Amino acid sequence: MNRLDSFGIYFDETSSTFLLQTEKASYVMSVVNGYLGHVYFGKKLGYYPGKSVLRGSEYTYVSGKPGDKCTFMDGYPFEYSISGTGDFRTPALKIKNSDGFTGGELKYKSHKIYDGKKGVQGLPATFGSEKDTKSLEILLTDDVLGLEVTLKYSIFEGIDAVVRSVHIENKSDKEDGTFYIEKVMSSSFSLTCSNHEVITLHGSWARERIPDRRKIGHGRTSISSTRGISSHQEHPFMAVVSPDAGEDSGDVYGLSFIYSGNFLGEIERTQHDELRINMGIADDNFSWELKNGQSFDAPEAVLTYSGEGLGRMTHSFHRLFTDHLIRSPYLHKKRPVLINNWEATYFDFNEERLLQIARVAKEAGIEMLVMDDGWFGHRDSDNSSLGDWTVYRKKLPDGVDGLCRKINEIGLEMGIWFEPEMISPDSELYRAHPDYAIAIPGRPASECRNQFVLDLTRKEVRDCVYEQVAEILRSSNIRYVKWDMNRPLTDVGSLTTRGGEFHHRYMLAVYELQERLITEFPDLLLENCTSGGGRFDPGMLYYSPQFWCSDDTDAIERLYIQEGTALIYPPSTIGAHVSICPNHIVGRTTSLSTRGYVALAGTFGYEMDITKFSEEERAEIKKQVEMYHSLNPLVREGTYYRISSCSGLTKGNEKNKSFAWMNVSSDKKEALLTHVQERGGANERSVVLKLKGLSEDAVYKLSDGRSFTGDELMKIGFVTDKIYGDGASKLYHFIAE
Question: Any idea what DSSP says for residue 735?
Fold first, then answer.
């Protein structure tokens, strides 16, 4: 028997078994009686396994007998389940016919395996070449409905991830074979274990993506958003982990969703202590009409497996998103050090005020000034002018192009803020087109932050918004755009779009707008923002290489937020700035050095009125900018490791008093260790940290002359310098001799 260790996708005709082989994981499916079952996902196998784990002949119900369809359907570990014909577990697919009846049965029809990967129409999607990517498509059919479901799988060389999506087509030959998709998951699979736990990322505005770890009980456990955005409150990510899973050991099954709208992640622990795990579009308020000949594409989901704890899961996501999702030309480039005027001025600024900030920023080595909210219409507060993307001449007498020329003459590049998805009741656009706002006919719409949401499902609305934004960019040397979105979707109604289709069509419209933007302006650095991190998700990374991580810029709060974010997202995607103290969100004062180190862990920039800083503080900022230029390639391109944490991500670490993380170069010749003490204590010793990712045989030297072997640093540990006070910090740069 030949081993099947090589990267690839295999099919055994004798047993009707599929085997997907990544670097250290295997994903196995098999067909029994025409039904595609999930056999295995876990540590890499060397051969095709048997299919006894499918237990197709066992019955699960009183009076049942082997072969009873009802008992079979209720116990079989379907690779992709459909509701209504005996499987009572939470389904992956729910179809309602034109008579209102729900029920279906998916049988294996055919498959194809090929090199490379296809995209997904109108949606963000991973990509790969024929050299490093393998794909599988499995066709399942329901001949009664005329339903065809194509399950799509792709794997990438060197990455323990399986990317999945679903294509649904109505092939009915009936005169009116219309049916309605009431639920469609992009991924579904089963685990035979029962004692696993789940890690999710929860939060709120200014407190996004905080890890939450808990046991999976019987019944259904779910996370979701129905806000029209992936949300601050929950995140389209789950990790199902063995109870002993830590940073470097234990089984970890990670799931992420390449989508930015309503989502659902669910786990059902069944009557037999098995797990069914689904990820896809939220089925609340979702109903998609599919007429004869029409099709629907679900967004992609990502599945990862690690037998080496959370750390390897993180590395799989980081590499997948970096190498196979983010398309920006800035991906492997140092981003300009920017200063944003929001926390410096809020709405109270004019051209001269911005030029003052720019002049002082230039002296400190800052490279770009970003003009935030308040430059358009007659906007002096948040109660007007969204939708009127014309210059507020009272503030900018020479327009955006005039200000941009002056900023460029100082020696800085310029960026600008937009909120293209919104409309203010007090705006010329709303007065001319009140129907452009999302609203339920006959019902007053709810305002949030004094604004409504534009009905972007309508082409004329998209074109109106895009042309206004594009005209500003065409007429000035803008190098960066911050695309904001400051409220959820409510009162969902439209003159042209079916209610059950609205949320998804809205998301498709946002994707279309951003695709148009980066196509017309390919050299633009686009940063997404949704009141901070309310739509920080893989879908948006397809269009922008970075996202404003959170409106909370407090360095200590950011330790938690950025660690949760970096659980799946590379540091290069995490928008992080040094801001003013006392911090405007929490009122805390943290040293300028610590604020700099925490911002260095992301994209790095400033959010402050630098003109009010002392000469000593400006000199320190200049040194921070120099530090960024020196160390950003290591942070951006290196491998990220969590060393110490207070977040509760792994058991017992909530007792820690400090955070520490590393960035290690691919050749292991350089490493950066950042250590931040969240809170100090009396009569405490220095901290010993076991480092990761180094070469055991290399000798690493610090700038103070101390040297250590990699073996010592990883096995015995590194004794940090003793630091004093809440928020105290130290940076250590190791270079191999």
Answer: E
Alpha-helical regions (H) of 384-458: 399-410, 428-432
- pLDDT of the residue at 653: 65
Instruction: Return the bridge partners of 224, or none.
Output: 264
Separation of alpha carbons 104 and 139, rounded Å? 15
Do 426 and 388 touch, CB atoms closer than 8 A?
no
User: What residues act catalytically?
Assistant: 484, 551
Q: What is the DSSP letter of 78?
A: B
What is the tens place of the pLDDT at every residue in 547-557? 999 999 999 99
Tens of pLDDT, residues 46-97: 988 888 787 766 666 665 555 567 677 888 899 999 998 878 889 999 999 9
Residues β-bridged to residue 417: 482
**Tokens 């219409």 identify what position?**
377
Q: What separation in angstroms does the CA of 83 have from each of 181, 184, 294, 589?
A: 11, 11, 21, 55
**Which DSSP helix (H) or strand (E) runs through 548?**
strand 546-548
> 534-590: per-residue pLDDT in tens?
999 999 999 999 999 999 999 999 999 999 999 999 999 999 999 999 999 999 999
Contact at 8 Å (CB) between 227 and 556?
no
Return the amino acid letter for 13: E
- Name residues whose C-beta falls within 8 Å of residue 262's C-beta, 6 or more positions apart in sequence: 224, 225, 226, 227, 228, 281, 282, 284, 285, 286, 503, 504
- Which residues lie closer than 8 Å to 112 by C-beta, 6 or more apart? 136, 137
The Cα–Cα gap between 683 and 677 comes to 15
Separation between Cα atoms, residue 236 and residue 255, nearest integer Å: 8
Over the chain, what is the mean pLDDT?
A: 95
Helix (H) or strand (E) holding 344: helix 342-345
Look at residue 56 in the predicted model and tell me its pLDDT: 66
Owner of token pair 């790969």? 128
Length of the chain: 737
Is the pTM higher than 0.70? The answer reads yes
Sheet holding 25-32, edge to edge: 8-12, 17-21, 25-32, 35-43
Ordered by where they begin, the domains of the chain are 8-324 (2.70.98.60), 338-421+459-485+526-637 (3.20.20.70), 641-736 (2.60.40.1180)
CA distance 306 to 240: 11
Q: Give residues with Cβ within 8 angstroms of 308, minimum separation 6.
A: 24, 248, 249
